[in-house]
Design goal:
single chain; mainly alpha; elongated; 89 residues
C-alpha cells in the first residue's frame, strides 16, 4: 500500500465524516443562534432555554437525515472493501 493510497483513503474518510456530520451541526448552529437572539431580546437568562430546543432540533435533524447518512456510510464501506485487493498489491 502506497502512502498516496493511504492519504487518499484518509482524505475521503475525513470528507465523509464532515458531510455526514454537517446537517446536525448546522441545525444546532441555527437553533443556537436563534435562541441566543431571543434570549438577548427578551433578557431571559434561563440555561435550560438554550439546551432543550437544541437537543430536540438536532434529534429531529438526525431522524430526518439518518437514511441518507446510512446510505453514504454504506457506500463508502462497500467501496473500501472492494478496493482492498487493489490496495494490497
Amino acid at each position: 500500500m502506497t502512502p498516496e493510497a493511504v492519504t487518499a483513503l484518509m482524505g475521503e474518510g475525513i470528507k465523509l465524516t464532515l458531510v455526514v456530520g454537517a446537517p446536525m451541526l448546522l441545525v444546532g448552529l441555527v437553533v443556537g443562534l436563534a435562541i441566543s437572539v431571543f434570549s438577548a431580546v427578551t433578557q431571559i437568562q434561563e440555561m435550560t432555554l438554550t439546551f432543550v430546543p437544541k437537543i430536540v432540533a438536532v434529534f429531529l435533524a438526525l431522524l430526518f437525515t439518518l437514511p441518507w447518512m446510512i446510505e453514504k456510510l454504506t457506500t463508502y464501506t462497500i467501496n473500501l472493501f472492494t478496493s482492498i485487493p487493489m490496495l494490497v498489491r
